[in-house]
Amino acid sequence: MLTDIEIAQQAKMKPITEVAKSLGIDEDDLELYGKYKAKLSRGLFEKLKDKKDAKLVLVTAINPTPAGEGKTTTTVGLGQAMAKIGKNAVIALREPSLGPVMGVKGGAAGGGYAQVVPMEDINLHFTGDMHAITAANNLLCAMVDNHIKQGNALGIDVNRITFKRAMDMNDRSLRNIIVGLGGKINGVPREDGFIITVASEIMAILCLSANISDLKERLSKIIVGYSVDGKEIHAGDLKAEGAMAALLSDAIKPNLVQTLDNTPCLMHGGPFANIAHGCNSIQATKIALKLSDYVITEAGFGADLGAEKFFDIKCRLAGLKPEAVVIVATVRALKYNGGVKKADLAQENLDALSKGIVNLGKHIENMRKYGVNVIVAINKFHTDTDAEIDFIKKYCNDNGADFELSEVFAKGGEGGVALARKLVETLETKESNFKPLYEDDLSIKDKILTIVREIYGGKDVIYSTKAEKKIADLAGTEYEKMPVCMAKTQYSLSDDPLLLGRPEGFTVSVKDIVVNAGAGFITILNGDIMTMPGLPKAPAAENIDVDDNGNISGLF
């Protein structure tokens, strides 16, 4: 059996100019990064703005497990399958982060015969967007420390600097550090730390900005800390936004690549959904909506995280109107939710499936609350039995949910034809009445409680003293009207990763709150969530290699 990278390396890619031509994009609107990837020009959307928008579809999933769900693989395969049935579709994905690539989760290019290529480029440096975001983030940090060293005219309180350095790698040793050691010449000593690049507010701003002007305005609003008299200090106060925007001037342009079937993919931005807002860029999505009849996008982790943030943050801020949601589920993951250990998931176990399938049921209920059509994609593994597949089908029927089997991992676009037809049928025959879960005018606590009760299935929320004080300080300000970005574990509907299935009546703990003034949302840190992951005991990096000819191996 071929590995993902072996399949990708055998792909017959078309020059990206040909892929662009199939979408009606002229070469003048491409900035080539080699033969097989390109950035789209800054003025392309303006040329397309009068075209009718396509129908927007979100692919999400049940809560992730070590067994894997295949959300991105399903997204890619569905895009390939739409072409198989003669439909003009574009997929819009996030870019991978080097942290998971070198760690344990993997990349973000799909898998099997439903992949985006060139896979090695995409999962490593791609077009340099992640590096540009990291550089812009760390420029701001350097300007903060330099301002303090050069006399601190703004009166920045060194104990209340909130903006942290970033690095696109899992490195737990950098979570909490001391900078400025070595005497006066090296700056002022203070506590600091790193977050992973995909959790940076710069990443969120890049994904949510409409253009360069909007980017600069958002960058200027970033709160870097507070003065000794309690005043907010913004990036604009340090005159940092221009240089930061210059570093991001290429990164803000969406990237065009292709699937194994040479169908188009816009890949841009890469925030995680457990610690950030988890969606690709608004620019990429809006351009895709003008280039096709159907746009299929995805949001990170389970529907309780990625889909909720897609609807309540991205769609709210961008004015998007999605029409359908595809929820990916697997027999293996549902059995895991029913208490089966990973080593035993290949064995038929209808009892465990009946216990774990309630996780899928909750996600179906949740997605319906947004007024969109819901389809369940049963992502088939070779170990699944007919009895187990039939059990899920019956459960979907009993709960009034449309469904189809998906075999895109093993069969590529052909394995997703039935799912594609079901999706098109749904979009053409059923109305969607999308609406966010909560209104802007709700208090911060009411927004949090609404998500906890309606999406997670919890009962109450408890706040740390620090969180309580921050919420009190924000009362009556413009920040109170912002949507909230819940940072919690992806493994459970609750904030406890050990509570699988469909827990109910639990309490969620909020330990801290961060105002992302530039991005336009407030991040709520729940439970033990961290914004800088660590590497596992046996990181994926141990298996990655390159030969004398530059051929990479071991990349999944």
Structure explained in plain terms:
The protein is α/β, with parallel strands linked by helices and 556 residues long. Strands 1, 2, 3, 4, 5, 6, 14, 15, 16, 17, 18 and 19 form a twelve-stranded mixed beta sheet that branches. A four-stranded mixed beta sheet has the order 20-22-23-21. The chain has a three-stranded antiparallel beta sheet with strand order 7-12-13, covered by helices on one side. Helix 7 (129-149) packs across helix 8 (201-208) and helix 13 (331-337) crosses helix 14. It is globular, with a radius of gyration of 23 Å. It starts with a helix and ends with a strand.
Topology:
Elements: H1 4-9, H2 16-22, E1 30-32, E2 38-40, H3 44-48, E3 55-61, H4 71-84, E4 89-93, H5 98-102, E5 110-111, E6 114-117, H6 119-123, H7 129-149, E7 156-161, E8 165-167, E9 177-179, E10 190-192, E11 194-196, H8 201-208, H9 212-220, E12 223-227, E13 232-234, H10 241-247, E14 255-259, E15 264-267, H11 282-291, E16 294-298, H12 303-318, E17 324-329, H13 331-337, H14 350-356, H15 358-368, E18 373-379, H16 386-398, E19 402-406, H17 408-411, H18 417-429, H19 444-456, E20 460-463, H20 465-474, E21 484-487, E22 507-516, E23 521-526, E24 545-546, E25 552-553
Parallel strand pairs: 3-16, 3-17, 4-15, 4-16, 8-11, 17-18, 18-19, 20-22, 21-23
Antiparallel strand pairs: 1-2, 2-14, 5-6, 6-14, 7-12, 9-10, 12-13, 14-15, 22-23, 24-25
